[in-house]
Amino acid sequence: MLSIENLTKVYPTGDRALENVSLEIGGRETTAIIGPSGAGKSTLIRCINRLTEPTSGRIVLDGTDVTSLNKKELRKARLDMGMVFQEYNLVERLTVMENVLSGRLGEVNTWQAFRRQFPPDAVEHAYDTLETVGLAGFEDKRADELSGGQRQRVGIARAVVQEPKILLADEPTSSLDPETSRAVMELLTDIAEAENIPVLINIHEVDLAVEYADRIVGITDGEVSFEGEPDELVEEAEDRIYRSDSVSKTGRKGNDDEALDNLGTELREI
């Protein structure tokens, strides 16, 4: 169970990306986060695993307060949080199998990682997961030889191989064509069911959210403006989430500024 309690993010400029967001995510539920550009959707996902540092509030995963962990404890806790990135975040020169097994790097020492020596059960799980995501037989292909949809499947497989307690996906369909987007959404919901873990997806395509998610959370100006099942997302509720000029009127950050902040945080983590 993931509990988000009064989560707030204020950037050094004073811009408020999130304001007292509280949510609970559990079971094998697929939850889609929707909202206008710059509303704070990516910030919310990245605050959960502290790629972006929250300003205040608590994030508790199965009893562990993620917001209170030091760097060493956080690295361990991140093994419980699989992350699927918008831009895949693969090592292009490595093979599909090497990229997938990188999800288990936290379980081996530096020498084993350098020699790419992983436990037999991890390798077996990686092969099984590649079959699950439709990439059986691709294990020896380099990542830079794959299509966008195939790369995203590798990213999903890498996250699943971690055996996480929750799967986070930050705009996993934004770089994909409509047919591939539907395949990726179906894959993510199937994984939630098969692996018995919750999936939290930040997504722009409302129609995909309605079709595939069990629950929808609307974020507007950094606050929860809607929470309910897909069939409750009637026109009035959607208008409330996507109210016109909401971003420009608040003067909050757009996606580009938010991405730069996130990049800076990630570079400091390296």
From TrEMBL:
CDD domains: ABC_PhnC_transporter. The keyword Transmembrane does not apply. Keywords: ATP-binding, Cell membrane, Membrane, Nucleotide-binding, Translocase, Transport. GO terms for molecular function: ABC-type phosphonate transporter activity; ATP binding; ATP hydrolysis activity. GO terms for cellular component: membrane. The keyword Acetylation does not apply. It holds the Pfam family ABC_tran. Gene3D superfamilies: P-loop containing nucleotide triphosphate hydrolases (3.40.50.300). Residues 244-270 are annotated as: Disordered. Residues 2-246 form the ABC transporter domain. This is Phosphonate ABC transporter ATP-binding protein. It comes from Natronococcus pandeyae.
